[in-house]
Write a structure and sequence with these properties.
alpha/beta; 42 strands; 15% strand
């Protein structure tokens, strides 16, 4: 039946030799291990026509089988004349012809075949040839000759009747196949083919391999399978090029001692079981070997001395000892089903070993030295007596399969979590009672077999094993997925874990992990993203669990909105919804927190590389500058823009949504996972720019955070019609991958910039030390060097999974996002300070602060509240930091002007800021529509227009206009003045003292200036004013300092610097990028210059940068009279201190100070961060 089925297949079209060719190449029939020949079909096969036999050409006469059938059935004139049919030739790589005449029943080779010398391959297999003609020598270009499955004659070792001696003239012949020819001897003509590289003489009963084999010095592959030989001649060592010897199907009794001299032999395929004959003949020998009372010596020692051997299979060879291994190139070693009681020590030196199988032995110990074989990919130690797995197993970083089933292991070491590449962990039938949490770090694990152990509870973080997609299942007769049967597991309960869907188990464990987390503090969630990205609608969906969409421009978030939210699992969050308009850029740093969880929201429906910087890139730059090291999760909204899609109802079930054609959608789920880019990525596998050792700075490369405790995103699409839904799903996936790629590329560019700056700093420090530059200069460079190193070691931790959501009805993806946020918060690696026990008196301290009715609480009042609760200064500070972290208060302990001031009611401060920074400021300043200017500011229309123009042009706010901004507070005169004194401390504005006798109109006299609104850039008027001021100084002394920011300056930072200069000058004139100021004895100017740098990230749509690096220089120039008392150095000290404080408080800002050597030697120059001193209590 097997042969009938095989030969019932339709054979390919054949044409007479010389006719128009059709492509065909036959390598010869496959041979079975049993030795049955398939050279000629059986009778039943001949009589069975192919069911698919149809002629595609009108010229086709029929198949060979049909022709033969007609010959048998016909007689006389009706008989079909038998013809020699040649399969249409193909061409070799050298342009020579391939002639395939196999299976023709030929008894003699037609002379037409040997009549040309352009034949490269000649296939004559499965015929009735007894010999080849001497004219074969004409085929001078012949490379390959296949005469397998013929009746070639060779009656004695000197018989040339089958293969003529003239064959030696085929000097280009490199491959000869003469298998299954029933040869008792090898034709001697073969030994003359000294250029031969491949020789196949398998399935011939030759019994002995002639020593003449040594003549074939160029031989590379030798097939001697099923030839009845029992050994190899020593002369085989002359074949120094031999790489492969196949000896399967022979009973090999010995091997020559010369084998180790073959330095290229990689494969010696022999059944080593044949060497066990002497052991099998004595029944007692096997028992003595098992008990170790006799040492196995029946495997020839020469086997272990083959230095280039790659595979050694000693399975079931009854050995209890392995001699010293010299097979240093070994890649696969099979020692299973033997009597080995320990791992051979010489094995630990096999640096190329990838597969080690020592299963079914008598091993009791897994030695620590196994960790030295770091190349191991597969390690099988099942069916032994091992009781312990060493901790050093973590060093096997390339291991993909570990089989320790059927042992006596009681404890799984936590070191197993270090096997990051592990895909299969088989631990069936051991004595394990628990699993370490570290096992959940095996993010690549696909199969985990824990059958028949003593496990009672599963790790609560097992949901991190995202590549386990099935449970209690088989694939190709092998277990796959998660196997838990025959364990007394009660957590989760049996009705949960006895399933074929591991997600059911994981869902239970996720909720259990969240519920059982103790002392979990409230976590800040910072929502960033461009205006209109869907942040507010997403927050509405999270908090209210229903779709509440915003109404475009009218519902835009102003500055910041805070919302408290507690999930169904009682995880507490403080949500910060930041307005995405550029107008709020100066306010963002006030509420940044590197300890918070940052959600970067973008419009997934409109994302492209062209819009990357606008939607994502500029925010990543902002995070790098103000929150390095923060945990960032990307959230793509507007999935509803992808045509039809499935949605989730409030119970997290999938519901149907009407399509545009009126039909409903059905469920189509697609698991989306992130590939760790093995080429260098994530590689979205580890955090972008995961930490590296400073000893190898060049190795710091961006990778993607592989934190495995995030949700697995399900992508749903409408399957009606299938083509359109598949297109929508595919489009969403492709956009998701594009986002990951662009973010990784942007972070790579940022990393390279940091490394370049670090190299420049290293060079500068080395040069400065050699040239004996001032110590202040060297110390400044060392401080900046340490800062850049710290940025490289603590990069943003961008989560690899992008959450895809829709804020429309059904809130697709929102449930998964909530679950992801909960799991991230309880992850100690991401948020190590999120779980702590809080003293009760801290709650009383908070209540005491909240009772104050002022806009802020002074440090003196804070200390008083602490004393009442017997709290020392250190504890007060710790408590304030805790309250700040959970969003109850705002306390800027590192800002000198705000450190001793606590904003105990953040909403009030936010409202004050919102009133001065608006994305719709010009619409707000509409005298006709907004009656507050008439009722609160007492403006006349003309006066209001003048006050409005001054504000929008120069950022100057008069008292009446400020009163209108703060109209919601209903302030009296004193409270108004308190606020005017307060806001300059926040560094986004400065105040102008009001004269005791007002000069000019009150509506035009500024009391507060917001530099952010200044629209005038430095021009000729700036230059003229500066030159005019210089003429008034007779003997000028010029002090110049330059702050260089190679990666650019964030929005609002220069404005903040200009605000801090107010208390040091008597008069000033502001421009957007410059200031002119005067003191009693000096004049000064502060200017900012920046040039756009080219990006190396070109896109398909053109030269579109994914990030923008602007090298900026801030120049400070002070000019005074040369003979003045301070000579400008006092002012220089004050201003450099202020600028240094601002730049140093920006944690991700890279900057350097350049000035002359003379100034560096001045003790007045400030380059270190100013610290805040608090009083001590006893």
């Amino acid at each position: 039946m097997l042969k009938k089925a095989r030969f019932a297949k339709p054979v390919q079209q054949m044409v007479e030799y010389g006719t128009e060719p059709a492509k065909m190449e036959k390598q010869g029939s496959a041979k079975s291990k049993s030795g049955s020949r398939e050279g000629s079909p059986s009778k039943s096969a001949k009589k069975t026509p192919s069911p698919n036999r149809k002629s595609k050409s009108p010229n086709r006469k029929g198949t060979p089988g049909e022709l033969k059938s007609a010959m048998r059935k016909g007689s006389g004139k009706d008989k079909v004349k038998k013809k020699t049919i040649v399969k249409s030739p193909d061409l070799t790589a050298d342009g020579l012809r391939i002639i395939d005449m196999s299976g023709q029943g030929m008894t003699i080779l037609p002379m037409s075949v040997v009549g040309t010398n352009d034949t490269g391959e000649l296939i004559l297999a499965s015929n009735n040839l007894r010999s080849l003609p001497p004219e074969i020598k004409r085929l001078t270009e012949l490379r390959k000759l296949d005469i397998s499955r013929n009746g070639i004659r060779c009656t004695n070792p000197g018989d040339f009747s089958g293969l003529p001696g003239e064959i030696k003239e085929l000097v280009n012949l490199v491959e000869l196949k003469i298998s299954e020819c029933n040869l008792p001897y090898i034709p001697p003509a073969i030994w003359t083919l000294t250029h031969l590289k491949i020789l196949d003489i398998s399935r011939n009963k030759i019994n002995i391999l002639s020593p003449d084999i040594g003549e074939l010095v160029n031989l590379q592959k030798l097939n001697l399978q099923q030839t009845n030989i029992t050994t190899l001649p020593p002369e085989i060592a002359y074949c120094q090029e031999l790489e492969e010897i196949l000896l399967w199907g022979n009973v090999i009794e010995s091997l020559p001692e010369t084998l180790p001299e073959m330095l290229k032999l990689r494969t010696l395929a022999v059944n080593y079981r044949s060497f066990c004959a002497q052991v099998d003949s004595f029944q007692e020998s096997e028992e003595l070997l098992r008990k170790g009372k006799m040492t196995s010596e029946h495997i020839p020692l020469v086997v272990f001395e083959l230095a280039t051997l790659e595979v050694l299979d000693l399975e079931n060879t009854k050995i209890n000892n392995v001699p010293e291994l010299s097979t240093i190139s070994l890649r696969e070693l099979y020692l299973c089903k033997n009597f080995l009681s320990k791992v051979p020590p010489s094995l630990f030196n096999l640096n190329h070993l990838q597969i080690l199988d020592m299963s079914h032995n008598l091993l009791q110990v897994m030695p620590d030295e196994i960790s030295r074989v770091k190349s191991l990919v597969v390690l099988r130690l099942n069916n032994n007596q091992i009781e312990r797995i060493p901790q050093k197993i973590r060093d096997l970083s390339n291991l993909e399969e570990l089989n320790i089933s059927y042992n006596r292991i009681r404890y799984m070491p936590n070191a197993v979590g270090g096997l990051k590449m592990l895909r299969r962990l088989l631990a069936e039938k051991n004595e394990l009672s628990s699993l370490p949490d570290e096992i959940c770090h095996l993010e690549n694990l696909e199969t985990l077999d824990l059958t028949e152990n003593r496990i009672t509870a599963l790790p609560m973080k097992m949901h991190q094993l995202r590549n386990i997609t099935t449970a209690h299942s088989f694939q190709r007769l092998s277990k796959c997925g998660l196997w838990l049967y025959k364990n007394p597991i009660h957590t989760p309960p049996p009705e949960i874990w006895k399933t074929e869907k591991p997600e059911k188990i994981f869902e239970y464990l996720k909720k259990l992990a969240i519920i059982k987390t103790e002392n979990l503090l409230r976590q800040k969630l910072l929502f960033f993203g461009e205006s209109g990205s869907g942040k507010t609608s997403l927050i509405n969906g999270l908090v209210h669990r229903k779709s509440i969409l915003t109404n475009g421009e009218t519902d835009k978030t102003r500055a910041l909105t805070q919302t408290k939210w507690k999930t169904d699992n009682n995880v507490d969050f403080m949500l910060h919804d930041f307005g995405g308009d550029k107008a709020y850029s100066m306010l963002y740093p006030l509420f940044c927190d590197a300890n918070a969880l940052v959600l970067l929201v973008y419009n997934h429906g409109t994302y492209s590389t062209d819009t990357h910087y606008q939607q994502i890139g500029n925010w990543i730059e902002f995070f790098n500058t103000y929150m390095p090291g923060a945990v960032v999760k990307l959230v793509g909204t507007h999935l509803d823009s992808y045509d039809e899609y499935a949605v989730e109802d409030e119970n997290a079930n999938l519901s149907e949504m009407p399509s545009r054609s009126g039909s409903s959608t059905s469920r189509l789920q697609s698991q989306m996972s992130v590939q760790s880019n093995k080429s260098g990525q994530s590689e979205w596998s580890r955090s972008v720019l995961s930490g590296r050792s400073l000893h190898s700075r060049a190795s710091v490369t961006p990778n993607l955070e592989t934190s495995p405790n995030l949700e697995q995103i399900e992508s749903l699409a409408n399957p009606i019609p299938l083509s359109r839904s598949s297109s929508c799903l595919s489009q969403s996936k492709s956009v998701q991958e594009l986002v990951k790629t662009n973010v990784m590329r942007q972070m790579q560019t940022y990393t390279e910039s940091l490394k370049q700056n670090l190299e420049e700093l290293d060079t500068s420090i080395e040069t400065a030390e050699k040239s004996k530059q001032p110590m202040q200069y060297i110390k400044h460079l060392q401080i900046q060097q340490k800062k850049v190193e710290n940025l490289l070691l603590h990069p943003l931790r961008i989560m690899p999974d992008i959450a895809l959501v829709s804020n429309h009805e059904g809130l697709y993806g929102v449930r998964n996002l909530i679950e992801s946020l909960e799991l991230m918060v309880i992850d100690n690696k991401l948020f190590p300070n999120a779980q702590r026990s809080i003293p009760d008196k801290w709650q009383h301290f908070k209540i005491s602060l909240k009772r104050h009715k002022t806009y802020s609480v002074t440090w003196k009042k804070v200390e008083t509240s602490g004393k009442e609760l017997e709290m020392k200064v250190e504890e007060i500070q710790e408590c304030l930091q805790y309250l700040h972290d959970v969003g109850e208060i705002l306390w800027y302990r590192d800002v000198p002007s705000l450190a001793k001031m606590v904003f105990h009611k953040p909403r009030i401060l936010i409202q004050l800021l919102m009133s001065m920074f608006r994305h719709d400021m010009e619409n707000f300043l509409n005298f006709e529509d907004n009656k507050v200017f008439l009722s609160k500011g007492m403006f006349e229309k003309a006066d209001f227009k003048q006050a409005r123009d001054i504000f929008l042009r120069n950022g100057q706010i008069s008292r009446p206009l400020m009163n209108c901004f703060w109209f919601f507070e209903e302030l009296d005169y004193d409270h108004f003045n308190d606020l005017v004194e307060l806001v300059p401390h926040i560094d986004f504005c400065y105040s102008i003292p009001e004269p005791s006798i007002p000069k000019g109109e009150l509506y035009a006299y500024p009391i507060v200036v917001l530099p952010w609104y200044n629209k005038e850039r430095v021009g000729t008027d700036f230059t003229d004013r500066w030159n005019d001021a210089l003429t008034k100084i007779h003997k000028p002394k010029i002090l110049m300092v330059t702050y260089v920011l190679p990666l650019g300056i964030p929005l609002g930072l220069f404005e903040k610097i200009t605000c801090l200069l107010q208390k040091h000058v008597n008069t000033r004139i502001d421009w957007t990028n410059g200031i002119l100021g005067t003191t009693k004895t000096e004049i000064l100017k502060l200017t900012m210059h920046g040039d756009q740098q080219s990006s190396d990230l070109d896109t398909e749509s053109g030269d579109i940068p994914l990030c923008k690096q602007i090298e900026v220089e801030v120049h400070l120039t002070i000019v005074s009279e040369e003979d003045s008392e301070s000579g400008g150095t006092t002012l220089l000290k004050e201003l450099t201190r202020e600028i240094t404080d601002v730049m140093s408080r920006t944690p991700g800002l890279v900057w350097r100070l350049h000035t002359s050597e003379e100034i560096w030697r001045l003790p007045s120059l400030q380059f270190a961060l100013k610290s805040v001193q608090f009083s001590k209590q006893t």
